[in-house]
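Lab notebook: predicted structure, single chain.

Context: the supervisor wants predicted structures on file for every construct in the current expression panel, including those that have not yet been purified. This is the next one on the list. No modifications to the sequence; it matches the entry in the shared construct table.
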Amino acid sequence: MTKQFSTVVLRSISTLVIVLVLSFFITRIAYRNPAAMLAPRNATQESIDAVARALRLDEPWYLQLWYYLFRGPDIQGAPMGLMHWPPALGFSFRKQAPVTDLILAKAPVTLSLALGALVIWMVIAVISGVVAARWQGRLIDHVLAFFAYVGLSVPTFLSGILISYFFFFQFSNHGISWFPSSGYVPLSEDPLQWARHLALPWATLAIAEIGIFQRMVRASMLDVLGHDYIRTARAKGVPERRIYFSHALKSALNPILTLGGLELATIMGGAIVTETIFGLDGVGRMAIAAALEADFPVVIGTTIFAASAFIITTLAVDLVAQWRDPANRN
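Prediction complete. Output recorded below exactly as produced.
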């Protein structure tokens, strides 16, 4: 167990280093002349050169990477690099603020969006997947498969627009103001308003995920239901509901949890379309705005944040899977 944990930690650190180097190198290729993009409009060549010198953009990319890691910008008179503690992710050229502070300000929005949607789609997918497996080939199985394929086929931008149109616009026309069209209220400020503002974004993300998870739960359940211990439980007279929800589902959960962790990590990297449709000021919107404005410290910072979220989530999923394995517990 200790050896496996050490291997996972080393793999995670190696992944972060590779992501950092690649993102740093790619931003240097994507932005051929970032000083010109950052300089004021109609700036002279001397002004552009001055911007490049001030931000060290005229140095080779590997020297800029070294500076990013071990020196960083001077904040409150002290150097702040990624290798300092606490780690700093650079300084935004456009926002004139530390990238770490910008990400930490946006992260609660993206985290609330991702976790809420995960709970909704997992609960619905698990229940409907078990029901589909229980009545395999029956009408309810075909109906659930139909809705799963529809959910998978509809793009997120379309489902988001439709949900906003019906549950905000049409409801508002009839005097029903249950769901706001945009905005975010922190959970600590007002839990009810927090849920109201996120209900439609949660539904948008959940619709896109329920289909694949529902089909996966169904397939895993059907695989487990063919095992000998399930037949033994039936021979002993164990009720069907207990066989499905206690015996079979427990064994079928590992691949579902793994996929759920991967999807959660992907959304943590930025559910850009959903955040844009519902006006959520999250990490995804900030990353896109930074990419369009050539604010590459923010682009690199959000990339490292997304990679860290992915690594932490997959590490947690691996540990849960190890803990759920009876061989490891014994």
